[in-house]
Give the backbone structure.
Amino acid sequence: MKRILFIVGLLLLLVVAPAAAADQADPVVINLNKWYQAHPMAATPGATGEMVFKSPRSAVFVRQAAAGTNLPPHYHSNVDEFVYVVEGSAELLTNGEWVKLQPGDVHVNPRGAVHALKVSHPKGVKFISVFTPPQPANGDMVMIPAGEPLQSPPGLLDSNPGAGLVVSLKEWQGTPVGQSAPRFGSVSMPDNMENDGLKAISISDSPRSVVMLREAGYGAFHHHKQDLADEIVIVVSGSARTVSGSNSYTLGKNDLQIIPLGTDHHMNLMLGENIRFVTVFGLPEKQTTSQPANLK
């Protein structure tokens, strides 16, 4: 279930607010429903959005694209791109085929993977977009001329999997937390990847990013900090309390939490609580694919 992505360099397609300061010490928490209520979608084709976080490792955008938006086939030569669909739908060209993107779908677009986007839904599409690392100042979209093969130069695809990935989380959300190995899309939740009561499966990793699907139930207490990466969390369902320093947050569906590298924090699930969420880890550019094993 691949998806949506728009670059800073396309000024005609994207309107972006000033970036947040690099290497922030405090987490960023945004309720996406409230953000979209405060930012009505434009009536004309094109994508608009706001950069809500930027560091040397990652840039996070809250975005939306109106009906009629079209982004022709292209690839990124420097960055990985992750997209999470919040509301609406769009069609994505990935791995040479058009697929429909719907709410709760996750799209991972590694560096060098060719993709395109078109929006025909009358209400457009609302989504989160994460670039790891941030795109260069002059953009990072390499267009593919009409009639040419939909491929990038050899060597750009260095991720696992080494092509576009689209995962539907609909089946995952419909399965009780803690059930063994439920299937959702092309992956299943393993029984053996637990950390302080938190289950996780890595669906994509590269030298620049790791994307995990994670879940936890009552009693989980996950206290940690990332020494290698920014941690970007989107809640798919459920709720949990997270604490960082003197700041406490209750996270629920469609909440976005960004935890900069080195920020100590913990997640605590009380009686009756469970949570499912997607995490994108933005790594330093020169890390190797052996590094994600150290992520918490």
Notes: Helices lie at 32-38, 170-173. Residues 1-22, 176-194, 289-293 have pLDDT under 50 and may be disordered. Residues 89 and 102 are 5 Å apart (CA to CA). The longest strand covers residues 46-54.
